[in-house]
Design a protein that fits this description.
The protein has two helices and no strands. The chain is an all-alpha fold and 84 residues long. The structure holds zinc ion (ZN).
Length: 84
């Protein structure tokens, strides 16, 4: 097997993915960073969507009909929402 990070040959247990703790840590730290970036972007969209709904509906309304055009004008991202 070859290390996913440095391409060195891996010795020891057959199911190992990395040659060393250093390479293993490098992989996980970078994976975490990449995940954080994606989560942050998605979080921003969700927060903006929520603000748009709050602006239109106010705090007291539980349910109301809003035209899609109104939401589109405010750049509501329909692809992302937490519940209906
Ligand atoms: Zn390595």
């Amino acid at each position: 097997m070859i290390c996913k990070i440095c391409n060195k040959k891996i010795t020891g247990r057959k199911d190992k993915l990395f040659c060393s703790v250093k390479c293993k840590n490098y992989y996980h730290v970078n994976l975490r960073k990449a995940t954080a970036v994606v989560v942050k972007e998605l979080d921003n969209i969700l927060h903006r969507n929520r603000s748009i709904l709050l602006e239109i509906m106010g705090k007291r309304k539980i349910q109301c009909r809003v035209s899609r055009m109104v939401l589109e004008k405010k750049h509501f991202v329909f692809k992302y929402h937490t519940h209906q």
